[in-house]
User: Which sequence fits this backbone?
C-alpha cells in the first residue's frame, strides 16, 4: 500500500508554524490576519492539481493534502480534469475563499496569468508544483525533480535496453544500427521540453555515428509531442508510424517514451501489430516515467523495459516544507536559482533526484521503500 507519511518535516518546522510572524502570507493587506499571527488551523492552503486521469497526480494531490493536514492547515484540494478553464475557476475560487497560499500543478503553464496576478494582489504566495508556471512574475517558488536529468535517464534506459550501454553506464556489446521512434510530452507542459532536451542530448552522439536512426524522420519535439500526455493519442500516433514507416518490413527496435501512460499506449499499438508480446519475444524496448503501478507490473513481466521513479512523496513533502517557510514569514530553501527561467524571471527552485527502474531493481527501489507493495507489483493494481 502506498505510504504518504512526511519524510522532511521536523519539529522546528512545526514550531515555526505556531510562531508565524505578521509579515507572512494571510497577514498582509489582503489576508485576515491583520498583521497578527494565525494558528495553523486558521490558515487555508489551496492545492490545484491538473488531472485525475493519471494515478501519479491523484497520489500527488493526496500526499500534499495529507502533509498539510498533518501540519494543522485547512486544505482545499481540487483537480482540474485536464480542462484549463476548470482549473482557472478553481484557483479563482480558492482566492475568493481566502486562501493564504497556493500550490499549483498547472495543466497549461501559460494559462494562469490573471489568477496569479490576483494572488499577488492579496500577498498570497504561489508555489509551482512539478510543472513550471510560465510568463508570470507572480510565481514565488518551484518544487520539482531535476527534469533534464530525468530526460537523460529516459534515454539512458533506452540505450541499456538496446544493449548499447550496460546498467552501470559502461559500454555494452551491441553495435546497431538500431531503428527507434521518439515521443514527447505535451508542449504546454514546461517539463516536456526539459525531458526532451535531456533525452536528445544523450542520444545525439548515437545519431551522429549511425548507431541510432529514426526511420520516420520525426525528430522534432513538435512532431513527437503528445497533447495532454494522453495514452490514446500516443497509441494512435504509434499506429500511424507503424503504417507509414514499418509496413514494408522495416524493423523497429526501440521507442523513447517520456511517461508510462504513453508507454502503455505505444506497447498496445506494437502488440496489436503483431510484435511481442514481450521483450524476449521481439517487442521493441520502450522507456517510461512515473513508476505507475500498471507499468511497473509490465516491467516485472518483461513487457515494458524501464521507467523513471520520481518519489512523489518527497516532492509533496518538499512542497509542504516550502509552504511552512512562507507561512512563517521566512524564505524557503532553494538548491537551484539559475535553471528555471519562466520567460519573465528565474524562479527559485528545489530539485529532487530520480532513479531508473529496471526489472532487477523493482524490489530495492519500489517495494523496500514501500512506494508499491509486492502484491501491487504482481497484480498491476494499486490497493
Assistant:
Amino acid at each position: 500500500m502506498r505510504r504518504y507519511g512526511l519524510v522532511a518535516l521536523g519539529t522546528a518546522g512545526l514550531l515555526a508554524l505556531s510562531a508565524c510572524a505578521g509579515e507572512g502570507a494571510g497577514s498582509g493587506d489582503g489576508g485576515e490576519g491583520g498583521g497578527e499571527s494565525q494558528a495553523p488551523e486558521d490558515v487555508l492552503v489551496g492545492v490545484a492539481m491538473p488531472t485525475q486521469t493519471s494515478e501519479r497526480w491523484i497520489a500527488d494531490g493526496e500526499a500534499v493534502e495529507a502533509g498539510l493536514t498533518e501540519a494543522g492547515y485547512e486544505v482545499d484540494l481540487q483537480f482540474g480534469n485536464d480542462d484549463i478553464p476548470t482549473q482557472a475557476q478553481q484557483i479563482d475560487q480558492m482566492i475568493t475563499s481566502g486562501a493564504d497560499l497556493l500550490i499549483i500543478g498547472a495543466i497549461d503553464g501559460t494559462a494562469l496569468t490573471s489568477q496569479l496576478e490576483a494572488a499577488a494582489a492579496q500577498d498570497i504566495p504561489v508555489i509551482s508544483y512539478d510543472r513550471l508556471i510560465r510568463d508570470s512574475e507572480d510565481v514565488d517558488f518551484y518544487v520539482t525533480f531535476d527534469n533534464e536529468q530525468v530526460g537523460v535517464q529516459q534515454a539512458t534506459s533506452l540505450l541499456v535496453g538496446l544493449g548499447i550501454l550496460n546498467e552501470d553506464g559502461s559500454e555494452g556489446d551491441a553495435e546497431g544500427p538500431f531503428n527507434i521512434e521518439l515521443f514527447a510530452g505535451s508542449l504546454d507542459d514546461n517539463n516536456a521540453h526539459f525531458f526532451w532536451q535531456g533525452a536528445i542530448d544523450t542520444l545525439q552522439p548515437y545519431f551522429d555515428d549511425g548507431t541510432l536512426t529514426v526511420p520516420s524522420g520525426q525528430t522534432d519535439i513538435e512532431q513527437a509531442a503528445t497533447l495532454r500526455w494522453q495514452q490514446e493519442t500516443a497509441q494512435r500516433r504509434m499506429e500511424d508510424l507503424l503504417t507509414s514507416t514499418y509496413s514494408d518490413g522495416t524493423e523497429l527496435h526501440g521507442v523513447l517514451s517520456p511517461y508510462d501512460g504513453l508507454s502503455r499506449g505505444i506497447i498496445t499499438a506494437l502488440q496489436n501489430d503483431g510484435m511481442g508480446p514481450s521483450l524476449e519475444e521481439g517487442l521493441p524496448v520502450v522507456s517510461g516515467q512515473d513508476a505507475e503501478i500498471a507499468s511497473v507490473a509490465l516491467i516485472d513481466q518483461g513487457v515494458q523495459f524501464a521507467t523513471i521513479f520520481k518519489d512523489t512523496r518527497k516532492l509533496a513533502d518538499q512542497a509542504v516544507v516550502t509552504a511552512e517557510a512562507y507561512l512563517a514569514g521566512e524564505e524557503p530553501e532553494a538548491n537551484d536559482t539559475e535553471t528555471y527561467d519562466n520567460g519573465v524571471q528565474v524562479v527559485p527552485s528545489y530539485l529532487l533526484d530520480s532513479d531508473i527502474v529496471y526489472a532487477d531493481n523493482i524490489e530495492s527501489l519500489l517495494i523496500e521503500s514501500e512506494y508499491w507493495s509486492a502484491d501491487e507489483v504482481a497484480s498491476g493494481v494499486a490497493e
